[in-house]
Each structure stands twice: as structure tokens, then as C-alpha cells.
Amino acid sequence: MYDVAMSPQVSLHNSQTFLKCSRFQNMSQNSSESKRKINQAAEARFGGNVDVICSRGHFSYVFSSNLYCEAAKDLVTCIAFRQTPAS
């Protein structure tokens, strides 16, 4: 389980491939637009479902995943992750 309270400049990831393939460079100052673009790019690259959450400013979350990426651009912060199946 990963629990983080984000500041806008934090950038964490567990996979260089996921970071590159989730296309965080598609982020804009619009959180809804960023979310859609990141989701489309990540799902096209990895197949399956990739969850994406974007928000303007600070937010906190808890999730379980072995594949995730987090980035911020200006005031928009996004996290993309693939849910870990229940064992």
C-alpha cells in the first residue's frame, strides 16, 4: 500500500517505462483534459485499465499498485496507476 500527501512538485514513480508511456508530457493546466490524455496514452501502451486521478493543487490518496506514476505541471497534479488484483 502506498500512502502519500502530495505537494505540487513531488514526482515519484516505480517504473521508468510507465513514466514515459503514461505520457505525462500531455498534461495541461486543465485537470480533466490531462486525466483523459494520460489515461488514453497509458491504456494504449499497456492494455487493460489504468486509473488516473488529476486535481488542481494538493490532494492525498491511498492505493495498492505495483505500477504507478505521479507528476505535477503548474498547478495540476496527476497520479496514474494500475490496480493490484486482490490475492
Automatic annotation (TrEMBL):
InterPro entries: Ground-like_dom
Annotated Ground-like domain residues: 25-81
Name of the protein described by the UniProt record: Ground-like domain-containing protein
The species this protein was found in: Heligmosomoides polygyrus
